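sorry to bug you again but im stuck and you know this stuff better than me. what follows is a protein written twice so to speak, once as letters and once as structure tokens for the fold. id like you to explain what the token line says about the fold, in plain words if possible. anything you notice is useful, everything is just below.
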Amino acid sequence: MMLMLGLPAIAYAGPTPQLIYFDNDFLGPGETSLQSLVPLIRRKDVRVVGLGVVTGDGWLKEEAAHLLRFLEIAGRTDIPVVLGAEMPLMRTPAEMHAWETQYGALPWLGAWNDPAPGLPSHPNDPGLIPPLPEGAPTIHAAREDAIAFLIRQVRAHPGAITIVAAGPLTNIALAVRIAPDLPSLARAIVIEGGNVDDEVTQATAGADDTTDFNLLFDPEAAHIVFTAPWKHITVIGDAATRVRFTPAILARITSAGTPVAAYLKHYAQTDWPFWDEISVAVAIDPTLITASLNVVMDVDTMPGMHYGRARIWSRHDAPHTGAQPVRLVQKVDGDRFVRAFVAAARAGN
């Protein structure tokens, strides 16, 4: 991948804000990926140094178009958008389908979903950007790619940037391989994914809620990230599935009539968990965590039915092959999260 320079390292005046770099598969309109920006864009004590895009729930370029349009609507075109990996490190659509044939169908394949009613996927055309329901953006992503941008920003602000990764970990893994000093220079990393002990829930309640798509889509990238020497790793796990975006919450937001509220009125998907939204909120305010475990976590990259699944051990029992200690979130203060989310979504530009 060519590393293009183009954006200067960002400097800030006044009181030191909390710096966040947010990497995600920004499928839209609405949905958890774009709604996760709501906790970020109105916080005066947070500065988003950049938004990295990675293929996952959708293809890279289509995701970027949805993200850029949302930033226009929200009045935050000042935030740099940088594009990263269009494919996982190793996994391919053909390999994914072969795995499903042998071990069982996955409920969600992201960019590789077959087209279906209400699901206008284009698995064989990664460059296609269909007409956007919310309108096409008039702004563009930066020329610099997400991997180079992330490395440069972290090196420019050592010990200050929290990386939030709510999509497949391809961009972060590439950055770690190119710049092995990156984990030691970042303040922390927060990862959406890492579901454990979810087999019964998959079979009896709903596989969509528990399938660990971000890890399954690019297991090798997840393994690279989980075995890098970060100062602090927080993994959201399945804690976010317990807090859902209900119609009542949406009604509290839309009564404000602000641009973001109007956007959510048209495009928010209710009755789904606040997956990515809670990941961002916890990165900003870890006191939202009310229960957690200190474990060692890695991702299975061996061929077989557990390929792409999270694995955890106690520190004593870990295999000592490079996997790092993580804080695995078990529960968050859902009421406090919802109050803050509603207030941010109701705020004007």
